[in-house]
Structures are given as structure tokens and as C-alpha cells.
TrEMBL record:
One of its GO terms (biological process) is DNA catabolic process. It holds the Pfam family S1-P1_nuclease. The keyword Cell division does not apply. It is an enzyme of class 3 (hydrolase). Keywords: Disulfide bond, Endonuclease, Glycoprotein, Hydrolase, Membrane, Metal-binding, Nuclease, Transmembrane, Transmembrane helix. Its EC number is 3.1.30.1. It catalyses: Endonucleolytic cleavage to 5'-phosphomononucleotide and 5'-phosphooligonucleotide end-products. This is Aspergillus nuclease S1. GO terms for molecular function: metal ion binding; nucleic acid binding; RNA endonuclease activity; single-stranded DNA endodeoxyribonuclease activity. It comes from Salix purpurea.
Amino acid sequence: MFCDIGGRKHQAVQAEKKKKKIWDGIRGLLRLCALAFVLFVGLASISLPGALGWSKEGHMMTCRIAQNLLGPEAANAVENLYRWTSPLHFIDTPDNACTFDYSRDCVKDACVDGAIQNFTSQLLHYRDGTADRRYNLTEALLFLSHFMGDIHQPMHAGFTSDKGGNTVDLRWFRHKSNLHHVWDREIILTALKDFYDNDMVLLQEAIERNFSDGIWFDDVTSWKECDDLLSCPDKYATESINIACKWGYKGVKEGVNPSR
């Protein structure tokens, strides 16, 4: 019995040491990010007159460098931090049904519609929270902003069998892509190049004009008409699968080039 107790104590100590090692690695990641960023800013200020630092590209590079320096256990722990969010970015709808049904398509609330409802509910109760909870609500706002973009991308409400177009390989102009990626990125990049001189601000302003006094002006009111705030995502999901069926999947077959 005493030997058993000693064995369990030893296992607990070893587990605690392993846990400490992993989280020391994660804390090291944060320190390395900060150090790498300082180095990048220093180099930029030397080589580029008037440069004050880097934007998202600089931050991305510094953290990728730091992440590459993590040990296997710490790297795995970092990857596991947000793995639970993976199914919250999309909705799998039945092939060719072209409809959205929450009880059918969002089992246990694990879809982008359910995620929006969850984080909206958290933010609605912002004033009720403690200081710690309000800090967590900052994360809720970031998730909500991201998921609102996801639910309006038609392929994020696409068919189950092709994973929202991810397995539908095709060509976009001269390079290989897939149906999901075309809607995620290729259409935007092509529009930027062909109509907006690769200026994202010009594209954003054009979209804003469309609903301030342009082709979507009459639709704005209906976008906000929901029985309550939590029912709005159902409406957005329905719109997305309708667009996916009407335009996204229309005439698309494996290997085709929809850019033509």
C-alpha cells in the first residue's frame, strides 16, 4: 500500500514537471515573440529610414519564428489551445438540400451559427461580469467578429460530402485551387487586381457605398430584421447556403476553371 502511494506520488510529481515544462515552453514563445519583434523593429529602423515597425506581416513572421523554436510538447500544447474551435467556423449542410436547419445542421451548437449565438449572448451580459470575465469578453468579441465573416462566406455553409467545396479541386486562371479557396480568397484577390489597383481600402469603400447609397441600400433594413438578436445568424446561414447553391456550386465540376 505504502509503495503504491509512493508510486502515485512519483507519477503526480512527474506529471507536474511535464506540465511545467510545457507551459514554460509556451511562456517562452511569448518572450521569443517579443524579442523577435524588437529585433525586427531594430533592423527596420536601421535599413529603412523613417520606419517605425511592422504590421500584421511582421507580427506573423516573428511568432512563426518563435513557434518553430518550441519543443514538441509545448508546440502540441499551443495547437490544442484552440482546437476546440475548429467546427465553429462552418456549417455542414446536406448535399443539394440548399436549406439550413439548426437542429439538423448544428448538433450540440457546434457550428458557426451556434458560435455566433454563444458569443453574442456573452457580450449581451457584459455589464454583469467581473473584471476577469470582462477580460474574457474581449476574446468573445474577437471570435464574434471572425465568425460573422465566416457565416457570410457561402462555402462555409456548403455541402457535407465536399467539406464546403474544400475537396472540389479546380483551376483559377492559371493555378490550381479548390472551390472553397476560390470563394475565400481568389475572387477577392482578382477583384483587387482588376478593379482596385490592389488597394484593399478602395475595395472596402466600394462595398460600403453599395449599402450606403448603392445596389444594397434597400436591403439594409431587412438585414437587421430578426425576431431577436440570436435569430439573426439563422437568417445569415440560410442566405449563405442559398448563394452557394445558386452561384457557388452552379456548373462546377472537378477540374473545371470557373474563372473563364
